[in-house]
Design brief:
The complex is a heterodimer of chains A (95) and B (304). Chain A is α+β, with helices and mostly antiparallel strands and 95 residues long. Chain A has one domain. Chain A has a three-stranded antiparallel sheet with strand order 1-2-3, with helices on one face. In chain A, helix 1 runs antiparallel to helix 2, helix 1 crosses helix 3 and helix 2 crosses helix 3. Chain B is an alpha+beta fold. In chain B, 32% of the residues lie in helices and 29% in strands. In chain B, helix 5 packs parallel to helix 6 and helix 7 runs antiparallel to helix 8. The termini of chain B are far apart. In chain B, 43% of the residues are buried. Classes of the chains: A alpha+beta (95), B alpha+beta (304). Chains A and B meet through strand 1 and strand 2 of A and helix 7 and helix 8 of B.
Chain lengths: 95, 304
């Protein structure tokens, strides 16, 4: 008898379309779409990737590309994380 | 053979017998009805539709008949059915033609998922498509009717059929549904325009369907690429304003206007995104029909 294995609840990848300063994000799990500023969408991409690996990437990105201090970057990415969690776009259980 | 090739008796015999089989846009329709007003409606407004053979594929088997029983005499009503399913409550018999048109819209929007279907008028000139999505009251159908009498060809006054296969928009050029004041506006604008019977007192007000001559409609098999996306907003007494619309907002608005976005899901998202990539997008507020036509001319003649 083959033992069943615990299937991780891996989310379908969010789909991003960027147009200049805007991005529309499609969530295949809910079918919802969201219009976001491009910067916020970039961070969302990095957060969702970070959940699976390098959680500092959003902070590194904000510091490198937007000249934020470490504290500013942490505060900004944390606020976005909470917001996206409330929208169901990120979920810690994916880890 | 076209519907106009059938004489009145033959047309009625098909409608009241096995069903009149005809093509509208890419769809095969079989229509059975004993209601004289619908027979007149088909004869007058669908003369250039191809009458189909018995072995042709039919997408929608439609029956539109009076409600039977005592009600037939006390309060005559019409019931629309599709493959035996009755999606709507009966309507007054005097609204039979509207029930047929609305019912056919419902059939297309509900099951034709080989297309992403967007609630939008679509017209074409010189190979360039103009999409006019809009909520009720935006003036979408009035503007669309006027454009078809101003050198543009009609693909649809109601729904853009964006093919899942090739991303092109395909025509389903049916009569243009005009409501209330719009009827008189178009009759004054285009004296040559022909209309079906007036349907009074519907939930949308008074309705007349405008005949679209064959030369004013795009051939049903010919797909186009849209170039312009214009969200019209009629506002009495306002100043005309043409404002660029960002692609992100245009994308969100098209998604809101898509009947079957949730069914097509990720594929629908990619289709709308690709469509928006190729469009010049505008918000357009106007106070009357002439200003609307001038604004469309301004938008579509501007160099990118």
């Amino acid at each position: 008898m083959i033992a069943s294995t615990q299937q991780k609840n891996i989310p379908s990848l969010l789909v991003f379309r960027f147009w200049g300063e805007e991005c529309v994000v499609y969530n295949p799990l809910s079918g919802d779409t969201h219009l976001l500023p491009a910067l916020h969408a970039e961070i969302l991409q990095l957060i969702t990737e970070g959940i699976r690996g390098d959680s500092d990437r959003p902070i590194d990105h904000l510091m490198a590309e937007y000249a934020m201090s470490y504290e500013e970057a942490v505060e900004f990415s944390s606020a976005l994380y909470k917001h996206y969690k409330s929208l169901g776009l990120v979920d810690p259980s994916w880890n | 053979m076209l519907i106009s090739d059938l004489d009145r008796n033959a047309l009625k015999a098909h409608l009241s017998g096995q069903g009149l089989r005809f093509r509208t846009g890419p769809f095969g329709v079989s229509l059975r009805t004993s209601i004289p007003a619908i027979a007149r409606h088909i004869e007058k407004l669908y003369p250039h539709s191809e009458a189909l053979d018995n072995d042709a594929f039919i997408d929608f088997h439609i029956t539109t008949n009076p409600v039977s029983g005592l009600r037939r005499w006390l309060k005559p009503q019409v019931v629309f059915s599709f493959d035996g399913y009755k999606p709507f409550k009966p309507l007054p018999l005097a609204q039979a033609t509207a029930a047929f048109e609305w019912g056919l819209n419902w059939c297309i929007a509900s099951i034709s998922h080989q297309y992403l279907i967007i609630h939008s008028a679509v017209v074409e000139k010189d190979g360039l498509g103009l999409m006019l999505p809009g909520s009720p009251g935006s003036g979408k159908s009035t503007l669309c009717a006027a454009l078809t009498h101003s050198g543009w060809r009609l693909l649809s006054d109601e729904m853009a059929l964006l093919s899942v296969t090739d991303g092109m928009i395909y025509p389903v050029p049916r009569p243009v549904s005009l409501k209330n004041q719009s009827i008189q506006i178009i009759k004054a604008f285009a004296a040559e325009a022909q209309f079906g019977d007036r349907v009074a007192g519907t939930t949308k007000g008074d309705i007349e369907h405008m005949y679209v001559p064959e030369e004013n409609a795009l051939q049903a098999s010919m797909g186009i690429h849209a170039k312009y996306l214009v969200f019209p907003h009629y506002q009495s007494g306002c100043e005309t304003e043409v404002a660029p619309l960002s692609k992100g907002r245009a994308s969100m608005s098209l998604i809101e206007n898509a009947f079957n976005f949730n069914i097509l899901g990720h594929q629908g998202f990619e289709m709308i995104s690709d469509l928006v990539d190729s469009l010049e997008c505008h918000d357009f507020t106007y106070p009357d029909l002439q200003q609307a036509l001038d604004g469309i001319e301004q938008i579509t003649s501007a160099k990118p």
